[in-house]
Design a protein that fits this description.
Length: about 230
Amino acid sequence: MGVMEWLEFPASDQLVAALVARIEELLSAGIRERGQATLAVSGGSTPLPLFARLSEMELGWDRVTIALVDERWVDTGSEDSNENLVRRHLLQKKAAAARFVGMKNDAATARAGEEACAARLQTLPCPWDCLILGMGNDGHTASLFPGAANLAAAVDLHSGRICMAIQPPAAPHERMSLTLPSILNSRQLILHLQGAEKKKVLAQAQEDGDAAEMPIRYVLRQQTAPLAVYLSL
Ligand code: 6PG
């Protein structure tokens, strides 16, 4: 198990307040040290209250680039699009000044769009100052799904690939995901979890077992990037 910080809160709003302050510190440090900062965010329902509070935060947002950890290969106007989610909930108010770099392009499939997506992401200053992950109840994180055909390639630390198309065996839509090496190329990883069920799944992921069966284990077991778990019931 890598070095892990564990922050548990009795309620979501306390977690969100603490996490907003943490993100402010991380992005401000990036701006101070490099003149700009990068924030990678996940989709799903967990980050919605965080996005709302972050969008109101005072920061030099015009020096911040926001990108996605993963995307569903659907129209960017779709309800299922993470780009759409981030545009509606995060790139608002003060955070509207941030630059956004999405993953979806005009290619018919994520596989066909992989190269163009990677070329776009490669222009971003790395490491990520802060990268926020969620986790599904099947132990997936980003779009690293258990049972996905090319999971082994997506978690290969020597692939040299920044993103990869993934077909989840059970969840809807073909995805584009940052690969494990690009996720770990972060100054700070945050795992943001809400609810007793997620706590239970995380406890299970912390047990011994095949990482491919619960891909969050690749993140829990690595020693490359500092990881902070933010959990509320
Ligand atoms: C996505 C995500 C995904 C998400 C988990 C948790 O776009 O689906 O990036 O990895 O973080 O599925 O989702 P919830 O927050 O909805 O539980």
